[in-house]
Design brief:
- This protein is of the alpha+beta class.
- The protein folds into two domains: 26-116, Immunoglobulin-like (Sandwich); 124-311, Glucose Permease (Domain IIA).
- The chain has five helices and 21 strands.
- The strands form five sheets. Strands 9, 12, 14, 15, 16, 18, 20 and 21 form an eight-stranded antiparallel β-sheet that branches.
- Strand 10 and strand 11 form a beta hairpin.
- The longest helix is centred in the middle third of the chain and has 18 residues, at 137-154.
- Bound molecules: zinc ion.
- The site of zinc ion (ZN) has 5 residues, from strand 12.
Length: 313
């Protein structure tokens, strides 16, 4: 007998769900993720801005297996994170997922899907010394060990953000060889070009693209005198084929500080700077990094940092 009213309530609840379905949960959440750029290709740097209606305590985000850091912004500015789309990423649907905890204790899950669009990189034929195409066993062993060392470095980033503001181009130069080109080296297929080649004369000063710590400064078989800067939170820049290096392992560098000089060491066809960037282990175009404006920094900051950079010369 007393089940009847309960049954009525159940039926009316069910009908409410059918005729008055609840709004999609995302539209009622006090936060959303906005991604840039709007068209995303392999090799791009993706910037995610968290748009919120109340104060945020923490943000934990992932893109596939990539942890996307959202460093605490300065002075209550917007929370933003950077993700890397590897130069050989498969085109298709991806999703950035974030767990946001607010100061009032509420925790929500966000998901922002996007498409990685297909991109065809040009093929380039280059001719280098034969020892760089078929290294002797000693050189082969050395190159393999150096490759392992770099791979280990990409996994050990400083958990703090060391960079500030925007990233600068290390040399003022015309681009000579674009990012991502599929290379045929001495008529043999090589690995894709994971950086950009900036043409400059031997001895041209190379500036640190941003503040960071030197995690490698040594002569490598393929990339010659090479400096790697760890900018923190999975972000690295690499400067190769240098004639001389002005920094050592462990040094802290400022944005714009001269870290090396352009040269032609390692596997090259002439003097230039090979400039590359790793972001959460993804090989991304460093020129895309210079195009990202960091929302958490007031624009006036960049002027202060430029002056500091000049002093660092
Ligand atoms: Zn290069």
């Amino acid at each position: 007998m007393c089940l009847f009213p309960l049954l009525l309530i159940f039926i009316s609840l069910a009908l409410t769900q059918v005729f008055f379905p609840q709004a999609a949960p995302t539209s009622t959440l006090p936060a959303r993720l906005a991604l840039q750029p709007t068209r995303i290709f392999p090799g791009d740097v993706l910037r995610a801005d968290l748009e919120v209606e109340k104060s945020v305590q923490t943000v934990n985000a992932v893109l596939g297996r990539q942890v996307v850091a959202f460093p605490r912004p300065v002075g209550g500015a917007q929370w933003s994170g950077l993700a890397g789309i590897d130069l050989e990423a498969e085109p298709g649907r991806y999703a950035l997922k974030a767990t946001v905890t607010f100061v009032d204790g509420q925790t929500i899950e966000l998901e922002q899907a996007f498409q990685v669009l297909p991109k065809t990189f040009p093929v380039q034929r280059i001719q280098v010394e034969e020892k760089y195409v078929t290294p002797d066993p000693t050189a082969q062993k050395r190159a393999e060990e150096e490759s392992k060392k770099l791979k280990a470095i990409w996994q050990m980033s400083t958990p703090q953000k060391l960079w500030q503001g925007s990233f600068l181009s290390p040399v003022a130069s015309q681009l000579t060889s674009g990012f991502g080109r599929r290379r045929i080296v001495n008529n043999q297929p090589g690995s894709p070009h994971s950086g950009v080649d900036l043409k400059a004369t031997t001895g041209t000063p190379i500036k640190a693209a941003n503040a960071g710590q030197v995690v490698l400064a040594e002569d490598l078989y393929f990339s010659g005198n090479t400096v790697v800067l760890d900018h923190g939170l999975g972000l690295y820049t690499l400067y190769a084929h240098c004639s001389t290096m002005a920094v050592s392992l462990g040094d802290a560098v400022t944005r714009g500080q001269v870290i090396a000089k352009v040269g032609a060491t390692g596997r090259v066809t002439g003097p230039h700077l090979h400039w590359a960037c790793r972001l959460n282990d993804a090989r991304v175009n460093p020129l895309k990094l210079t195009a990202v404006w960091m929302a958490e920094e007031p624009p006036a900051n960049s002027r202060i940092q430029s002056r500091r950079g000049v002093q660092g010369k």
